Amino acid sequence: MKAAKWVVALVVTLLSGGQVLAADAIRIGAIFSVTGPASFLGEPERNTLVMLQDKVNAAGGVNGQQVEVIVYDDESDVNKCVMAAKKLLDQDGVSVVIGPSISGNTLAISKFFSSAEVPLVSCAAAEKIVKPVDPWVFNTPQLDRHAVTKILQNAKAKGFSKLAILTVSDGYGQAGRAVLNELIPAGGFQLVADEVYGPKDTDMTAQLTKIKGASPDAIICWGTNPGPAVVARNRVQLGLTTPLYMSHGVASDKFIELAGDAAEGLILPAGRLVAVDLVPADHPQKPVLDAYVADYAKAYNAPVSSFGGYAHDAFALVLEAVRKGGSAKAADIRDNLEKIAGFAGVSGVYTYGPENHNGLDESAFIMVTIKNGTWNVTE
Amino acid sequence: MSYRKDMIWLGCFFVLLMLAPAALPNNYFLTILILGCLHSLNAVGLCLLVGHAGQISLGHAGFYGLAAYASAWLSATAGWPVEASMLAGVALTVAVSFLIGMPSLKLKGHYLAMATLGFGIILSILFTETVDITGGPSGFVGIPRLSFFGREVKKDLALYRVVAGVLCLAVWLAFNLLHSRIGRALRALHTSEKAAQAMGVDIARYKLFVFVLSAAFSAVAGVLYAHYLTFIAPSSFGFMFSVELIVMVVLGGMVSVPGAIVGAFFVTVLPEFLRAFENIEVVLFGAILILCMMFMPDGMAGGWNRLWARVRRAWAARGASGAAHG
After folding, report:
1. What are the DSSP calls for B172-223, one per residue?
2. Which domains are delineated in chain A?
3. Which residues of B make CB contacts under 8 Å with A?
4. Are the Cβ atoms of B273 and A104 closer than 8 angstroms?
5. Cα dihedral: A309, A313, A314, A318 (round 10)
6. What is the C-alpha to C-alpha distance for residues A326 and B253, in angstroms, rounded to an integer?
7. Is residue B263 within 8 Å of residue B251, measured between CB atoms?
8. Which of A48, A170, A229, A368 has the most beta carbons within 10 angstroms of its beta carbon?
């Protein structure tokens, strides 16, 4: 009989599990890759969102309403992501969803959001997410296009005309390669070499030797850690003095750590979050950046990452839309997101519009040079 | 069980399935029910193969996926009507399973498991790598929803009824098969292949037949899945799903069709309830499976039968003692 009681107790607990909800809260769903291969994106994003939720609620909420964030982990898996999206839409009845962390997952679920008429603010960077514009889908990270534009502006100022590119053969590298191939000729440059390396390669000497043969004025490398660090080391080993540009994909202290002395003199576009100390005090992003860095350090005793920044901005933009329209209804949030202009987040200053669901431009980046193992602004 | 008992069970099951949505608090549980039915469809086919013919397969996720991808491609890319692409998806899978089954069913025990395992992995790699056709690891987007004669099954509830109906039809087929000459031959084959052969059972033919039939069940589930979710990705059809299917059948007690269904629903629904425990979800899931196997070694069907027997015995004992006193 005792056992039976336990079983009943267990069943009751299971059935009621975690379904205690605040009566009149604004319900914001979130899907992040907190575990799995993309956890380096999802974990800071989840942490950021939880931290901001507490902060907003402690300050009395938005328009007098508390905010309730429901986070699901898609384990970096696209099917889990689809199920999480269905659950948020059908069961939790959220009025807006933030995430997912990965572009592939975002593209997989975006259709569900247009048919459910609930806005999705993605933290993934692929251009395909916002081009062509889906009325219900937004994103917050800087686009590859912005980074390439920034690099090419710098190259033009320095008088370079012949460029070589070296990209990694994964989703990130190939998306970058497509934009580079489009913008380099369009900017009046000559593309003299287009080399590719594999995501697991440990030596890029062969590609760099080929590039050397084409004698470019500068090289642009597009990849995420650890590949570009290997490229930087190989460049030094080969005695190449051709300037090397990196993508924003390696704009973190981790890269300097991996590349060591070989990182000296490399130039790359970076979000201001990477080099908060270098942002002038009168810049509109400065107070947001300082607050985010301080809060995150206090809550998690860990440094911030640009990825957490994407979630920060998504959350801030959603709340701004709620504030602006005085309504937390899905359709109103969507309409008011499109009206946001000149809103400073940690990744840049956002101006959304009916034809612009990314909201940023190349001014979201600053060009930085690595000197003495740390970041320096070059303009 | 006798044929009549089986049919009564099926009738009750059908009524239960049709009434279930009324008890659900929201639409998300309907998703779970639909997935439960699709998994059951897979499990019933596999139950015939594993439990009755005694052949193990670790490649059924491959058949499930092959049919889903074939139907998805035909309807979304080639522009076929949904009904036609579903039929073609099932037909293709049946043909492939026939070709795979012919050589590999000559293998026995672990070797057959290895062969089907290899086949499942090959298919899973195929889904991942042929990016131009399948969309690769990020999945196949934009599959049309299930429709009949140009009328789309828009509501999840209607789609659930279709899926539940198909499941009941499949169970009816399985029961009839098991109570026929073929069913008896299969049981003979499972007990002893040599003895069955000596009695004149054409074992190669029966094995192949059940293998293809179970693949067809998986294929039907696969095409329904694709046109229900309107999105598929290789990770649904990987090796782990094949193992999960075997778990459902084993949990159900191998030989029992109702057991396989209960197993399938159990494995599908349980993680939803465990989600409240967040980080230890997987551990709990494993622990529950171990407990099930410890206390119900002959599966849920067996466990239920023993429980029922015990209740009846207790009832009879009470009746007897009551009579003695009176």
Report:
1. HHHHHHHTSHHHHHHHHHHH-HHHHHHTT--HHHHHHHHHHHHHHHHHHHHH
2. 2-142+286-360 (3.40.50.2300), 144-270 (3.40.50.2300)
3. 26-31, 137-139, 141-142, 229-231, 233, 235-236, 273-277
4. no
5. 160
6. 57
7. yes
8. A48
Classify B3-295 by CATH class: mainly alpha
Dump pLDDT digits (tens) for A313-368. 999 999 999 999 999 999 999 999 999 999 999 999 999 999 999 999 999 999 99
- Specify the pairing of strand A374-377 against strand A365-371: antiparallel
Q: Is A107 on the interface with B (CB under 8 A)?
A: yes
Q: What is the pTM of this model?
A: 0.80
| Alpha-carbon distances, residue A327 vs A122, A210, B212, B287 (angstroms) | 21, 58, 57, 46
Mean pLDDT of B107-115: 84
Residue pLDDT, tens place only, B187-196: 888 888 888 8
Distance between CA atoms of residues A16 and B247, nearest Å: 27
pLDDT digits (tens, 9 = 90+) for A202-243: 999 999 999 999 999 999 999 988 899 999 999 999 999 999
pLDDT of residue A16: 45
Measured between CB atoms, does A106 come within 8 Å of chain B?
no
> How far is Cα A141 from Cα A63, in angstroms, rounded to an integer?
27
pLDDT number for residue A333: 96
Contact A104 B137 (CB under 8 A): yes
| Beta carbons of B125 and B69 less than 8 angstroms apart | no
Give the residues across from A28 on adjacent strands.
A69, A96
CA B97/CA B87 separation, integer angstroms: 15
User: Within chain B, what is the greatest distance between any pair of CA atoms?
Assistant: 81
Instruction: Select the residue from A10, A34, A90 to test the B interface by mutation, using most B Cβ atoms within 10 A.
Output: A90
**Probe site for chain A from B30, B275, B281 (most A CB atoms < 10 A):** B275
Contact check, Cβ <8 Å, A90/B274: no
Q: Which helix (H) or strand (E) holds B231?
A: strand B231-232
Please check whether residue A39 touches B, CB under 8 A: no
List, for residues A155-167, the tens digit of each pLDDT value.
999 999 999 999 9
Which chain A residues in 108-137 lie under 8 Å from chain B, judged by CB atoms?
108, 111
A83 touches chain B (CB under 8 A): yes
pLDDT category at B201 given cuts 50, 70, 90 is confident
Contacts of A83 in chain B (CB under 8 A): 31
Verify whether the Cβ–Cβ distance B235 to A78 is below 8 Å.
Answer: yes
Measured between beta carbons, the chain B residues lying within 8 angstroms of A33 are none
What pLDDT is attached to residue A135?
A: 95
H or E element in which residue A103 lies: helix A103-116
What's the burial of B38, exposed, middle or buried (CB within 10 Å: 0-12/13-18/19+)? buried
Please answer yes or no on whether B236 and A111 come within 8 Å at the CB atom. Answer: no
Instruction: Read off the pLDDT of residues A357-379 as tens digits, 9 standing for 90 and up.
Output: 999 999 999 999 999 988 998 76
Residue ranges of E strands in chain A? 26-32, 67-73, 96-98, 120-122, 137-139, 162-168, 190-197, 218-222, 244-246, 267-271, 343-344, 349-350, 365-371, 374-377
Pick from B31, B139, B233: which is nearest to A86 by CB?
B31
Residue among B31, B138, B236 whose CB faces A107 most closely: B138
DSSP annotation of A136: T
Average pLDDT rounded to a whole number, residues B290-294: 83
Q: Answer whether B275 sits within 8 Å of A17, measured CB to CB.
A: yes
pLDDT score at B326: 45
Residue A178 exposed, middle or buried by CB count within 10 Å (0-12, 13-18, 19+): middle
